[in-house]
Structure formats: C-alpha cells, structure tokens
Task: structure prediction
Amino acid sequence: MHQKLLNTNNPSMAVEVSGLVKHFGDNRAVDGIDLKIPTGTIYGVLGPNGAGKTTAIRILSTLMKPDKGSAEIFGHDIIKEAQIVRQLIGLTGQYASVDEKLSANENLYIFSRLLGLSRSDARRKTAELLEEFGLSEAATRPLAKFSGGMRRRLDLAASLISKPPLIFLDEPTTGLDPRTRIQMWNTIRSLVSDGSTVILTTQYLDEADQLADRIAVIDRGKVIAHGTPSQLKASIGAATLELKLNDKSEYENAKQVIQSLLLVEGHFSSEGILTAPLSDPELITDVLLALRNRNIQLSEVSVKTPTLDEVFMAITGHETDKNDVESNLSIATNNN
Amino acid sequence: MKHSNDISQSALLNQTGIKQTIRQSLIMAYRGLLKVRRTPEQLIDVTLQPILFTLMFGYLFGGAISGNVHNYLPLLIPGILVQSILTGAVTIGVQLREDMEKGVFDRYKSMPIARIAPLAGALLADTIRYALVTILTFATGYIMGYRPETGFPGILLVSVLVIAFAWCVSWIFALAGVVGRSAAGVQGISMMILFPLTFLSNAYVPVETLPSVLKWFAKINPVSHLVSAIREIINHGVITQDFWLSVIGGLVILCIFAPLTVRAYRNKA
Result:
C-alpha cells in the first residue's frame, strides 16, 4: 500500500491542479485549468473534440510540460518529481499505446519487465492480466489482427501492471461498438471499487453521466462548470414536458393552455414537438385535463429530465458544432 | 477483479539508478530483437549490401587500383565492412522516427524508466544487424579468395572494433530520428551525413590520389582511421595509432550525441 505516501501528503486529493496553461502557437489548448480530484473517485473530464482534454492529460501524465501553472499527483510535483509521479500513474491513451508489431503476450511481458518484475513474475502477471481481460486466446496473435475493443483492453491491462493508484483513461471508448463500450464501462467501475482513482476524459455525455462521480466540463481550454452529474443537470432546471399533437393546427391552442397553466412559454421544435419547462410535475395532470377539455388530441406525451447534452449547451451557449471540431482538429495534430 | 493499490517498491525515488538503466535498456533491446523476428525483411539491406558491394567493387575497381582483384581485397574488405556497417546504422533514425509516431512511445514516456532506455535498447538491438554485415562481408571476401594474415583472432578483434564504432556513430542518426519530422526526412538527412563520411575516406581508394581539400578531410575523417586500423590488424597483425584514434573518435561521437539525443527525446512533446 502507498500508505506512507498518503500520510506524508494530502491524503484526500489524488490530483491538485492550479492555473495550468499550455499554448501551441497562438492556440491556448489549456487556458488556466484548476482541478481538485478526490482519491478513490471517477472524475470525468467532459468536452468536445479538442477542448484541451488530451493536452491536460498529457501534461498530468508527464508527457508534456505546461507553460504555466502547477500540478501535484498525490502531493508530488509533476515536473520536479516526474519520475515519482510516473510510479503512481497508469496511462491509457486515446490511441492504444501498445506495440503493434508484437503480440499481446510480448507487450505485457516487456512492460512488466520494464516495471521491475522478475522473469517469472512478469510471465505470471502477463498470464493473469490476459485472463482477466479475456485476451488469453489471442495472446500470441499479432496485434494487427486485433479488433479495436481488444486493443483497448490490452492497453488498459498494460496500465494496470503496477496497480497504480491513479489511472488516466483518455477517451477509452471512442470508436468502440456499443457492446464493447459497456464492457469497458464495467471494467472501469471495478477499478474504482478496488480503490484506484480514475480520471476519464470523454466527449460522450452519457459516458460521463454513467461513470463519473464528479465532472468537469471543459471548453476551449477552460473548466466552465464542475460538480456531480445531478448538480450539473439541476443547474439548468428540472424537467421538460414534450407534447406531440395529432392535428398540427391545434398547436397555438395547446400553447395557450401551457401559457395559462405552467406560466411559461412553450416552443415548437423542428420535429413538430411542443416543449416547455416543467417546474412541478404535479401540474402535468392539469395540462392534460385542460387539453382533453378543449378536445386537443395528443399522439405523444413525455417528461424528460435534462441530458448532459442539454447541460453542455446551456453552459457553453453553443453546440459541439462543426467549427469547433475543425479548429480543434488542428490542436490535436499539434499535440500528437 | 483484484487491483489493490500495492506500490511494491519500498520507497519512491525520483531517479533511476545506473543498474536499472542498463537492465531497462537490455529489455528494450529484447523488444527490438522480437521485432526483427517478426519482420525479418528489415534485415534485407544488411544482408544484400555487403555481398553486392564486395563483388561489385572488387571486380570493378580491383584491376584499376591494385592491378588485380586479389591484391585489391586486403584494401577493399575493410572499406566495404565500414561502409556497409555505417549504412546499416542509418536505419536506426528512421526506425526511431516511425516508432515515436506510434502510441507505444507515449507509454514508455509515462513509465518510471530511464529516459535513455528506449533509445539505447533500439541501438543495442541493431548489434544483430552489424554482426550480420561483418559475417557476410568476410564470407564474401573469403569466397573471392581473401585470406587475412592474422586469421580468426584478427577478424574477431576488428569485428568488435567496427561494431562498437558503429554503435557510437548510430547516435548521430538516432538524434536525426528523434528531432526529424518525418521518416523520409530523417532518411534524407542521414544519407547526407553518411555519404561524405564513408566515401570521403580511404575506404575505397588510396588517399594520395585525392585533390588537396578532399585529402585533408579524408585524413581527419574518423572513418579513415577506422579503416586503416582494421587493415593493419587483419593484414599485418599490428595495433597502430589508428586503432586508438578510432576508439577515441567513436567515444567522442558517443559523448556528444548520446546526451544530445536523450535531451531532444526528453523535450519532444
């Protein structure tokens, strides 16, 4: 156990970041990030493509030096004590960081040996991890024949050899099919139940919602919001009432009903759905009764709690639009 | 699944000791050898070149330079050996550039291992390429009728010398590989270094025949000293000043370029 480590330093914080800045030319990829990540949690870093997530992870995992600011991993400075930090972290990169020319078996064996395991321990550890990640059968096959999911699993297995107390997962499910994605989620959850701290970056809002205890929303190199998933959802209001009418000509009437009962203005969405914020779920009965009384027929009714997508839109004021992706692709190229 | 966080080391150190550094470099060399086993075609250059060059240069220049092929071989074989082995060393830069573009180098960098280990390991693994060049050059020479004066012990000594020298020089190409932007660019730069270094020497022709500027360069070129040292050992059984000059030359190159390469590697994002 890294008991000694935790005693001499702040035991409750796995990561403390203050004022982190990294430029690529004019581009402020990371523009003053502050973070405090408690030990033993899954911390989600959420943002569109190129928001600065990967750059932040690369800095925290000692692959890149920041221009300004500081960061500590379990109380150890990422620049002055880089080699100590490297003993405390496991990195699973956005692009699987394993050796394409070697087999899964050889990959894990070499990483184990590099981490100081003896020949026999390295062989045992390799077999153990291959078994655990369901790769035993493919162990000696060249990686070129691996599926994306198998590659990610091998990559994650390689990060766990030294059982590091802090694991970085940079977009661990990007490009995976839904089934493999859920498998990956289960693996990530089990890491935390064993006491590790996980920092997970994702552009999938449902992924952060599913996995993370706390979330930081990052956009254009800045943390624009942070909190638990439910706090973030609550911050943009309770629920939304959605109505779809049989007869489109009735929409104005329906809108009047909503105006008089919910005291808010309804909106027509492009799909022909009438939406309105719903502060008190009790009121929905009144709305439906009033519609029946006016003989306005409904084809669909639903009440939705906000998704993180809506949270993101509400906070950033813009969608994760094409411009962003493009301008950020150039950051990604610079990074890599 | 069981992942209790037992950091097994007794204390966390911010430095990697020399013993660990050597151990990690050897493990990385093992990785290099595994890759050669997977893709043996990467040995094609060091297999064909010594055979082809020895035959070609021998029959092409033998008559003109030494009267006949047989008399040219004692002059030619050491030259071909050095030329081929240094050409074999060039690929390290391209290999490193290609490797570093892949994700696996991110993992090495994020691991608590000596920064020099992935580089030194790749260079050490190339020893197999140098050994192949040495064996094939002498074998081709033997078939063409070359019988070195000093026999096997002499061949063994020059093999060790030339491989060690190549290992030192390969740090120049490793630096090109680490700082270069693309594999093709690295290849180009490396060739620009290689050709003057090997051809502007006494490897193929007697230095006396060269114009004065070239003569001056050929005489200070460490490659010339290496070629002379090899000729004197295997043809006359003597270790001369050239031997020591090439040893010193190699060490100087190593002491300049190994730290430069590691620093460039450390700073490269």
Q: What stands out?
A: Chain B touches chain A through 38 residues (CB under 8 Å).
